[in-house]
Amino acid sequence: MISFAELAEVEDIIRSVNEKAVLPRFRSLNDSDIAMKGPMDPVTVADREAEDLLRERLTAFLPGSVVVGEEAVSEDPSVLDALTGAAPVWIVDPIDGTRNFVAGSGRFSTLVALAVGGVLQASWTYAPVIGRIGTALAGHGAQVDGVPARVAAGPGGASLPVTTSHPVWWPLTYGRAVDALRDAELDVRYFDACGIEYLDLAIGARSAMVLTWEHSWDHAAGLLLVAEAGGHAAALDGAPVRLAGGNALPFVAAADAATAGRIREIIVESGQAG
């Protein structure tokens, strides 16, 4: 569906959009540049302009393709229907970690993935301020910062590093699962930027992630990156994670199936199930 040369061409598009729409506004936002889509869910003029530019350039790059972007979906949820359509779909989060971006932290990234028929073909995770880029091509591996990426099997016991989203994003009963993971002597910590966390998992700096939500724009790029780095992801019931949603939550992305299975079992036994 896409070649190594085209993988680099799309990377150039993503970098160019950041140079035009995102980076000039980093630490330069005015109050009028920021709106709230919901509690603790900001959107900026940079998010919207970057998504518009990515839509224009990516669909021109691959005629006949469509875009499912976070900001478009927030305006019209029917945009998500493209995930189950026949056309190639670019899944886009123009700024993953908008809260960090608004706060002046460089821990944000642009996430782009290409899927056909619900199957991921390629992905890009670009964190411009901290200077990191992850790419993956289905069946051909993954790279982070130009180096082949490979997950690392985590140790058991208290040193097994597991990350999850902040408690405010969990259902009301989230504490049962987190407490159960800690009681099982897993080292559970909270992360602030999903895309960057997937990068860390793909290079072995993490052993697993527990994800409590399933927005495709947050996860598509990272799921392929981790899979092509040798990792494993599954919904709470053990089924593959579906881009179009309807997964049993939380789902787990991990260095291997055994680690993911162990974490899922602890969560199920805790009574926290989606």
Automatic annotation (TrEMBL):
The EC number on file is 3.1.3.25
Q: Which UniProt keywords apply?
A: Magnesium, Metal-binding
Q: Does the keyword Metal-binding apply?
A: yes
Annotated protein name in UniProt: inositol-phosphate phosphatase
Pfam families annotated for this entry?
A: Inositol_P (PF00459)
Which reaction does this chain catalyze?
Answer: a myo-inositol phosphate + H2O = myo-inositol + phosphate
Q: Which InterPro entries match?
A: Inositol_monophosphatase-like, Inositol_monophosphatase_CS
Q: What class of enzyme is it?
A: hydrolase
